């Protein structure tokens, strides 16, 4: 789909004809001056709708700005080590623990009080802090909801008031 949008953008004002070629592996569009080639993907794309509609085992509501601050600090501490990895872990007493570890320096741990917790109350996942920060920055509102289904499942972030704004962040292997 991205390639088709690029084709439309690039060739929108082209005068004359376009040549289109499709093989088992490639898709090519060309004019006299420009050529775009793209590899065709084989197989079924994962059904992202299942990720968003499947019931989460754990749902957390927390202050977005506190989360931004703490993930930012833990992410800086992690640096480039293992994809800017931070660990999110649900602690007793309605606290979300955010931690990272850098072998040369040590570790950092920060806690955020939860505003609400529902479900089985288990969350233990490693996430790329940059992806998490970017999702939090563009999520509107003061509070966010985190949905977690279980081990190696993505973390879903939603705005409390706008169900259409959804961020899906895949976990990283620790």
Would you summarize the structure shown here?
By secondary structure, the protein is of the alpha+beta class. The protein has helices at residues 2-11, 48-53, 64-78, 129-138; strands at residues 19-22, 26-30, 35-39, 58-63, 85-91, 95-102, 106-113, 116-119, 124-128, 143-148, 155-159, 166-169.
How would you portray this structure in words?
This protein is α+β, with helices and mostly antiparallel strands and 174 residues long. The chain folds into 2 domains: 2-39, no CATH class; 48-169, Box (Proliferating Cell Nuclear Antigen), CATH 3.70.10. It has helices spanning 2-11, 48-53, 64-78, 129-138, and strands at residues 19-22, 26-30, 35-39, 58-63, 85-91, 95-102, 106-113, 116-119, 124-128, 143-148, 155-159, 166-169. Strands 8-4-10-11-12 form a 5-stranded antiparallel beta sheet. Strand 2 (26-30) and strand 3 (35-39) form a beta hairpin. The protein is elongated and about 70 Å long. The mean pLDDT is 86.
């Amino acid at each position: 789909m991205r390639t088709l949008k690029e084709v439309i953008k690039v060739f929108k004002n082209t005068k004359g004809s376009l040549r289109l070629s499709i093989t088992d592996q490639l898709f090519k569009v060309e004019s006299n001056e420009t050529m775009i080639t793209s590899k065709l993907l084989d197989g079924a794309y994962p059904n992202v709708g299942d990720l968003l509609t499947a019931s989460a085992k754990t749902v957390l509501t927390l202050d977005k700005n506190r989360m931004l601050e703490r993930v930012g600090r833990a992410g800086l501490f992690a640096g480039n080590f293992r994809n800017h990895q931070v660990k999110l872990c649900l602690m007793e007493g309605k606290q979300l623990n955010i931690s990272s570890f850098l072998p040369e320096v040590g570790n950092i741990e920060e806690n955020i009080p939860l505003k609400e917790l529902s479900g089985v109350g288990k969350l233990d996942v490693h996430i790329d802090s940059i992806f998490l920060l970017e999702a939090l920055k563009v999520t509107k509102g003061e509070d966010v909801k985190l949905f977690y289904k279980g081990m190696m499942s993505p973390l879903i972030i939603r705005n409390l008031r706008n169900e259409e704004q959804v961020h899906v962040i895949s976990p990283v292997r620790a």
